[in-house]
Amino acid sequence: MSEISKPVGRSRWLQLAFGVVCMCMIANMQYGWTFFVNPMQERHGWDRAAIQIAFTLFVVTETWLVPIEGWFVDKYGPRIVTLFGGLLCGIAWVMNSYAETLTMLYVAAAIGGTGAGAVYGTCVGNSLKWFPDRRGLAAGITAMGFGAGSALTVVPIQAMIKSQGYEAAFFYFGIGQGLIVMLIALFLRSPAKGQVPDVARVSQSKRDFKPGEMVRTPIFWVMYAMFVMMAAGGLMATAQLGPIAKDFKIADVPVSLLGITLPALTFAATLDRVLNGVTRPFFGWVSDHIGRENTMFISFAIEGLGIYALSQFGENPIAFVLLTGLVFFAWGEIYSLFPATCGDTFGSKYAATNAGLLYTAKGTAALIVPYTSVLTTMTGSWHTVFLVAAGLNILAAFLALFVLKPMRAAYTKAPQANLAPVLAQ
C-alpha cells in the first residue's frame, strides 16, 4: 500500500502544477486588460464605457459557460476541454490585434471568455477532485496561477504597447499563451477511484450532489449572492485600475518602495497581481484549519475596509499602490474559498460542474462593471463607486458568519439520509 501511495502523491501534485501553468497563461486575458483600455481609446476614439463592455462580455462568457464545460470535464476528462480552451484564447487575442470596430472587439471577447472559462473551470475542478482532503489549499494554489500569473508580464506588455503598439502585444502574447496551454493540456487527467484520500479537517458532505440537486438548495443561492457581492468590487478594480490611476492623475508618478522605483500604475499592477495570487493558497490553507466561513468573514471585512480607504486616500501615489495591494489581497481568496466550500458541501463527483455553476456568479457581477464608468461620469468621481463596493463586501462578511455558517452546520450535522428537509429550509 505504501508503494502505491508514493507515486499517487507525486502524481496529484504534478497535476496541480500543470493546472497552475495553464492558469498563468490565461491570466493576462483578465488582469492584463486594463493596460489596453486607454491605448484603444486613444487609437480609435471609442468611449471608455463602450470598450469595457468587451471586458464584461469576456467575464460573462468566461463564467456562464463553465457549467457546460465542467460537464464535459466530468464526463470526458480535462484534456480535450483544456486543448479547446487554449486554442480559443489564442484566437481571441489575435482577433483583438486586428479589431477595427467595437463589434469585432466584442466577438473576440466572447471567444476569449469561452476559452478562458474552459481552462479555468477545468483546472479548478480537477484540483478539487485530486485534493478532497485539502480543497482550500489546492483550489487556492490553482487559482493563484490566474491571480498572479500576469505579474511577470506586466512590464513586458506595457513595454511592447509603448514600443510596438497594443496590437502587437495582443498578437504575440495571444499566440504564445495559447500554444503553451495546448501543450500542457496533453498531460492533464482526472484521478482514478481510490487514488486520493477522503479525510479532511472541515465538515464535508458524505454524498455527491448532481448539479440539478445543488441549485435547488438555499445554501447554494446564499453562496451565489455572496460571490456576486465580493466579485463586483474586485472586478471593478481589475478592469478600471488604469482609468482610476489616470483620473487620480498619478498613473506615471514615480513611487519608491523597498528599493524599487516604478510609475504608480505599473507598481500597483505588479504588486496587485502578486498579492492577488498569494492570497488564494494562503486563505485557502487558513480555511482548511479554521473553517471556510470564519475565513470569509475576516478576508471580506478587510476587503471592504480596504476599498473604503482607497476612496479616501487613493490620490496619494504611495497610498494608491499599498491600498490597491490590500484590496487585491483581500479579494483574490474568493476563488479558493467558494470552490472549496462548494466541494465540501456538494461532493467531488460533479465538482467541476457544480463549482462552475457557482462560478457563474462572477459573470453576474461583471454586468455591474460598465455601470461604474457611467456612475463615475454622473458623479464626477470614483467616490460613490468605492462606497457601494465597500458596503457589498461588509455585507458579504456578515452573511458568511451569521447566515451561511449556521446553515451549513445544520446541514452537515443532519443524517445523510434525511438531507432534503434540511436543505429545503
Structure description:
This protein has 425 residues and is mainly alpha-helical. Helices cover 79% and strands 2% of the residues. It has 20 helices and 2 strands. The protein has helices at residues 2-26, 28-31, 34-44, 48-64, 66-76, 78-98, 102-130, 135-148, 154-164, 166-185, 211-214, 218-247, 264-290, 292-313, 317-331, 334-346, 351-366, 369-379, 383-413, 419-423, and strands spanning 254-257, 260-263. The protein has a two-stranded antiparallel ribbon. A hairpin with a 2-residue loop joins strand 1 and strand 2. Helix 6 (78-98) packs antiparallel against helix 10 (166-185) and helix 16 (334-346) packs across helix 17 (351-366). The longest helix has 31 residues, at 383-413. It is globular and about 55 Å long. The termini are far apart.
Task: Give a short overview.
The protein is globular, with a radius of gyration of 21 Å. It is mainly α and 425 residues long.
What string, H for helix and E for strand, traces the elements in order?
Answer: HHHHHHHHHHHHEEHHHHHHHH
Shape: globular
Main sheet? 2 strands, antiparallel
Helix content: over 70%
Kindly, what is the distance between the CA atoms of the first and last residues, rounded to a whole number of angstroms?
43 Å
Secondary-structure content class: mainly alpha
Main β-sheet, spatial strand arrangement? 1-2
Oligomer designation: single chain
Low-confidence stretches: 1-7, 420-425
Based on CA atoms alone, the radius of gyration comes out at 21 Å
Helical stretch tally: 20
Q: List how many beta strands DSSP finds.
A: 2
Mean pLDDT across every amino acid position: 86
Strand content: under 5%
